[in-house]
Each structure stands twice: as C-alpha cells, then as structure tokens.
Amino acid sequence: MKPTNLTKRQQAVLNYIQKFLEEEGRSPTLKEIAEGVGSSAVSTIHKHVQHLIEKGFLDRSHGSGNNIILADSAGAGLGDEDARPSPDQPSVKVYPFCGDVAAGVPLIPESRAIPLEVPNSIHRDRDGLFVLRVRGDSMIQDSIMDGDLVVLQRRGEYRNGDRVVALIDGEEATLKEFRKDPKGVWLIPHNPELTPKCYSPEQVTIQGVLVGVMRSC
After folding, report:
1. Crossing angle of helices 8-24/42-54, nearest 10°?
2. pTM (predicted TM-score)
3. Does the annotation mark 176 as catalytic?
C-alpha cells in the first residue's frame, strides 16, 4: 500500500530509486531519476527528492559518488504501512549560519554567524557543525542546488572523496570534492560542464566536511 503522505510523483520517484539501488548497486543521479519517471526537469526531481528526505524516506550518504540512498526507516518494505517514518517532528539543535559559499564561482563567506536550527536527522549530536548557503551549480550531480543550506563539520583530517568547503588563498570559499595527490590539492566540481582545479597545499585551507543538506525555505 502506498504511504498516504506522498504524492503520486513522489511515490514514483521513491519507487524508481529503490529499484535502481537494487538493480545497479549505486545511487541514481537526478538526471537518471528524471528519465526513469518520464520528467524533463531535473530541478523538479530535486524538489521531490528533498521532500522525500524531509519525510524520512530518503537520506544522503556523503562519500564518493552519488549520495541518494534509502533511509533506514524506509528500507525493508516501502509498500508497508509500518515502514513509514514516525509523524513526530525531529528534534532540532541550533548551529551557526555563516553566510554564503559558492558551488561555482568562489565567494567570500560572511563573518557574522546567526543561529539556525538543524534537524536531528542531520546533526546527530555531532560537534563543530556550522551552516552555509550554496550559491552556484557546480555540485548538482550531488543533488546540491543553488540556495540549498549545507551543514558542515570541522575536522582535523580530511579524506579523498570528502565534499568540503575550502578556503582558497585565505579569502575565497568554495564547496567541492576534495582530493590530494603528488600534484597538489584538487577541488573537483560535480557538474559535467565544469572542470577540476589543482592548487598547492599552501593555497587551500579546509573549513569543514559536508554532513548534510537542507532545502532552503
């Protein structure tokens, strides 16, 4: 039976993602989801995915590759009434919102932070979190769109494949995939129209690693 709090289109998107994960063993891209459900608007599919995340049916895994996965509460029987997430609102905690970060052309982040509530499904009592608003479209293949709010965590070490906010030359901040090799530090966009850039390690300071995304209201 279909979950009662999903629209027909959201149910179609959810069913397609579940089938794709089972058959392909990886997360589908937004373009693949759009093609799978007969839609030509990737931005519309992004909104449906965000609604499914907010309702607890999908989640994000911020490792390498695409990151749309089934939430734990949705995994074992999407057609079963018992598989629906609890209607209770998730708990929230307040973290600093530090302004805008570009996912295309780097911007200087705002210096004055304001408090912003982050759902428990994202913060999970982690330490060192802060929030930025994405400006640009270089991470669209990670389902991160212009205007989305990204939650980041400050860490001592960062691994290849992490999605990070990097400060370039001490003044420009950008959201990209992080990779380091003998040539230097690579900041890699997830947009087929853009190309990776390599910097010397002295040019790049990692501000935080991506742990969650919130749809901007």
Report:
1. 90
2. 0.59
3. yes
| 51, 83, 115 - which closes a domain | 83
The residue from 138, 180, 183, 197 that is catalytic is 138
CATH number assigned to the domain comprising residue 51:
1.10.10.10
**Per-residue pLDDT tens for 51-65?**
888 888 887 765 444
Q: Which domain holds residue 53?
A: 8-83
Contact 198, 206 (CB under 8 A): no
Domains in the chain: how many in total? 2
The tens digit of pLDDT for each residue in 2-17 reads: 455 788 899 999 999 8
- Annotated active-site residue in 55, 176, 183, 216: 176
Three-state DSSP class for residue 89? coil
Distance (Å, whole) CA 56 – CA 69: 11
Residue identified by tokens 């089938």 is 19
Helix (H/G/I), strand (E/B), else coil: 7: coil
In a shared domain, residues 76 and 96: no
